[in-house]
Design brief:
With 456 residues, the chain is an alpha/beta fold. Helices cover 36% and strands 20% of the residues. It has 15 helices and 17 strands. Helix 3 (81-98) runs parallel beside helix 4 and helix 3 crosses helix 11.
Length: 456
């Protein structure tokens, strides 16, 4: 262990090896079932009121080529006909959903994810944005964001982003080292990424995010540090740092990655630490456990003011309680529960071609789910929670979650948290294990490495 990370005891390594959810939702998608379907979704949509804003998410499940580390729901279409058919199905879904939502309801956020939204033809992207704006009531200050691959980010698609009012673009960088890029089948030079950043800013798209990864084949502490230095030098507003999850039994293309080239758990922790240290030395504020932002960015301000939130995109400034998802595999979040479209592209398209919604599964929330979700979200965003106060705010007894505290006592013994009656505070060394801490309140959790990623 080098000087940047300090001594690592066996207990911490065991916590790092645990498979725990990322808690972008609670309960997690592992608990979704086919007992929730289109009728439930339509009913929940009809109950949306104009009192609070909503957010929209659009999934574009196509990529130019497949990156071998990828865990997303995406495909290489080998021809644009499949994309065009998908866009028609997407239009049908937007029309069906818009009919159920009052025109008085305002949209505060729109996020295009994938896959690779920048894979779309520029005119098709503009048409899709126009359809959404014609179908829903966007607030004047709504944030429109899109994920993009620097390899497919042409001047034409950047112009389409600008024409459509996109204000934030998230670039999938992952790693700048050419040898690592070759091992993950994602070749994109530093100059290519820098050129994309410049072209976006020329078009007044000033909200720029980078995604970086550690735990990839061929990475070392030295290479990830250099990537972090290079990334910080381009001054993106936000940088998200994710650990690679190697699940070749679930994502077959990951079998191409040789396991002997992957760092072990201690090396993963060293890599995560040196990236965090480097970004903070270059002026970034640590947001939660895996995001970083410049001090003036709204994400940093939200954390300082206590307004930070978490949803399926990770840490966010989005305060909407309702997120309506479109596209294959997309998940909608409602006060009543979750609904997910079929991840199968053929099934999704066929259902909508028949004029039916493609909801395949979901989960209706009970009072206990909502209570535990509130505790988990508070921990994930702020690293502390007064469990008694949360229980009282939900009209529950102060001791309603006392069954969680025996597990928390173990974390206290290992120095990850401090307990003061029912007040929980993550210690500095416990913050990286906030997912483990939050898991103490997860009544559904099973240690299943096929369904959750490593804690670090």
């Amino acid at each position: 262990m080098n000087a940047t990370t300090g001594a690592m005891d066996d207990n911490l390594l065991e916590y790092a090896r645990m498979a725990v959810p990322r808690y972008t939702s609670y309960p997690t998608a592992v608990q979704f079932h086919d007992g929730v379907g289109p009728d439930d979704y339509l009913g929940w949509l009809g109950e949306i009121t104009s009192e609070k804003p909503i957010s929209l998410y659009v999934h574009i499940p196509f990529c130019q080529s497949l990156c071998w580390y990828c865990g997303c729901n995406t495909t290489v279409p080998n021809g644009y006909d499949r994309v065009a058919r998908y866009l028609l199905a997407l239009k049908t879904e937007i029309d069906l959903v818009a009919e159920k939502i009052s025109p008085q309801v305002t949209v505060s956020h729109l996020h295009f994810g994938g896959g690779t939204p920048s894979y779309l033809e520029p005119e098709h992207f503009e048409q899709l944005c126009a359809l959404l704006k014609n179908s829903f009531n966007f607030s004047a200050d709504a944030e429109l964001a899109v994920e993009a691959d620097p390899r497919t980010l042409s001047p034409e698609i950047i112009a389409a982003f600008s024409n459509s009012g996109i204000s934030r673009v998230s670039l999938g960088v992952q790693d700048f080292n050419p040898k690592v890029q070759a091992l993950i089948n994602r070749i994109q030079s530093q100059d290519m990424v820098a050129r994309c950043v410049t072209q976006l800013r020329v078009k007044n798209i000033t909200g720029i995010n980078f995604d970086l990864m550690y735990g990839l084949p061929g990475q070392s502490v030295e290479t990830v540090k250099q990537t972090a230095v290079t990334a910080a030098g381009m001054k993106p507003d936000r940088i998200a740092v994710f650990g690679y999850a190697h699940v070749p039994w679930f994502k077959k293309h990951q079998r191409v990655i040789r396991t002997e080239l992957l760092p072990d758990i201690e090396q993963r922790m060293e890599q995560a630490d040196v990236i965090a240290q480097t970004l903070q030395e270059n002026g970034y504020i640590r947001i939660g456990f895996d995001h970083f932002a410049l001090p003036e960015d709204p994400l940093s301000i939200a954390q300082t003011q206590g307004h930070l939130r978490r949803n399926f995109q990770g840490y966010t400034t989005d305060i909407a309680e309702t997120l309506v998802g479109f596209g294959a595999s997309s998940i909608s979040t409602m006060p009543q529960g979750y609904c997910q479209n079929s991840p199968d592209l053929g099934q999704y398209t066929a259902r909508l071609e028949n004029g039916e919604l493609a909801i395949a599964r979901g989960l209706a929330l009970g009072d206990d789910d909502i209570l535990r979700r509130d505790v988990i979200n508070t921990l994930m965003c702020h690293f502390n929670v007064d469990v008694e106060q949360v229980c009282l705010s939900h009209n529950k007894a102060p001791d309603a979650l006392d069954d969680c505290f025996p597990a928390l006592k173990t974390l206290e013994r290992d120095g990850l948290i401090e307990l003061d009656r029912r007040q929980i505070t993550a210690t500095p060394k416990g913050r990286r294990f906030i997912r483990n801490i939050s898991a103490c309140f997860d009544q559904y959790l099973q240690q299943d490495t096929e369904k959750h990623s490593l804690a670090v």
